[in-house]
Every structure is written in structure tokens, then in C-alpha cells.
């Protein structure tokens, strides 16, 4: 992803996430802080992008509320937060997200990865080794993601979260 892609990312986000608005400043922030975790998938005729991905280092169990500019990555980041992997409806069902997700997981390396699943996508994420983490203290942290939001982790994070 490049800064010039942000308007197209926002147009696709409006289609894919009509009830979860995030301003351009959020995408520019993530791109400036962790460019290697931001990806775009070119579209076809009439569609700038087929998809995009946003990820960055974060503290396990501390996903930021939607539409939040970070300004800096936490010094004690111990996981990779997969903030969004989105595909335009016309491009779904073709396994186009899989290579990007594998790249993101490779970025995580030995660290755990975490995400907030929305729209009932938890079974999709389970295919990549993510599991739901039931923690009442997370409910408030993920409230901006909607009532059906599910916090999920992959990797050694399950044990670490149990200790925290």
C-alpha cells in the first residue's frame, strides 16, 4: 500500500464495512508506522482495488477502538494486530485473501497474532489457526466493532493472556 492508495482503500472500506467508518488519517497513520503490514490487491474494470489489508505491532489483548490514530507503535508491542483484511464482494470465494494472510502471519514471526472478527467471519479465521478468546475485560475494548465482534488470537498468545 502507498499513500496514493488510501482514497481507493476508503472507497472499498465504505462498501465492505458500511457501519465501521475510519478516516483517511487512520490509514495514513498505519502506513507511516508499519508500511510492511499494509497491502492492496489491484481491482479490475470499474474497481480501483479488489482488496486491502492493514496490520501492525500491538500489545496483546489491546486492540484500539475503530477510527483511532495511534501516532506511535507501543514500545512493548508483543503481537501483530491484523486490523483488517477486506475483499470486494465480487472477488470473494477465490482464496485471494490467503496469500496476504500468510504474509501477515509471517510478519508476526514467533509472536502471537490477534484480530477482531466481525460479520460472522470467525470460522474463516479458524482456518488460519485463530481461536476465540473469551475475556470479559475485552468486551469494552472491542465494543466499537459491533455486538457480534469476536476477539481471536493465534500463537503463543493464549498462554500469555491467561497470565496477564
Describe the structure.
The chain is an alpha+beta fold. The chain has one domain: Gcn5-related N-acetyltransferase (GNAT) (Aminopeptidase, 3-Layer(aba) Sandwich), CATH 3.40.630.30. The protein is 31% helix and 22% strand. It is built from six helices and six strands; from the N terminus they run H-H-E-E-E-H-E-H-E-H-E-H. It has a six-stranded mixed sheet, with helices on both faces. The longest helix is centred in the middle third of the chain and has 12 residues. The radius of gyration is 15 Å and the shape is globular. It starts with 5 loop residues before the first helix and ends with a helix.
Features of the shown structure:
about 160 residues; alpha+beta; Aminopeptidase; six-stranded mixed beta sheet; 6 helices; 6 strands; disordered C terminus; Acetyltransferase (GNAT) family protein; Acyl_CoA_acyltransferase
Number of strands: 6
Main β-sheet description: 6 strands, mixed
**End-to-end distance, in Å?**
34 Å
CATH superfamily: Gcn5-related N-acetyltransferase (GNAT)
User: Over all CA atoms, what is the radius of gyration?
Assistant: 15 Å
- What proportion of the residues form beta strands (DSSP E)? 15-25%
- Structural class by helix and strand composition: alpha+beta
| CATH C-level | Alpha Beta
CATH architecture: 3-Layer(aba) Sandwich
- The geometry reads as globular
> Residue share in helices?
25-40%
Report the uncertain regions.
Answer: 157-164
Helix segment tally:
6
Number of domains: 1
Amino acid at each position: 500500500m502507498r499513500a496514493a492508495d488510501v482514497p481507493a482503500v476508503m472507497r472499498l472500506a465504505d462498501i465492505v464495512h458500511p457501519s465501521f467508518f475510519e478516516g483517511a488519517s487512520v490509514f495514513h497513520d498505519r502506513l507511516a508506522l508499519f508500511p510492511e503490514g499494509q497491502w492492496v490487491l489491484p481491482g479490475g474494470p470499474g474497481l480501483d482495488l479488489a482488496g486491502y489489508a492493514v496490520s501492525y505491532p500491538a500489545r496483546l489483548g489491546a486492540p484500539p477502538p475503530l477510527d483511532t490514530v495511534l501516532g506511535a507503535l507501543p514500545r512493548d508491542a508483543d503481537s501483530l494486530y491484523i486490523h483488517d483484511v477486506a475483499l470486494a464482494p465480487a472477488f470473494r470465494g477465490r482464496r485471494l485473501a490467503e496469500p496476504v494472510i500468510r504474509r501477515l502471519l509471517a510478519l508476526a514471526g514467533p509472536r502471537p497474532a490477534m484480530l477482531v472478527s466481525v460479520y460472522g467471519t470467525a470460522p474463516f479465521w479458524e482456518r488460519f489457526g485463530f481461536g476465540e478468546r473469551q475475556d470479559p475485560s475485552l468486551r469494552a475494548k472491542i465494543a466499537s466493532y459491533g455486538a457480534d465482534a469476536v476477539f481471536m488470537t493465534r500463537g503463543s498468545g493464549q498462554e500469555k493472556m491467561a497470565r496477564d
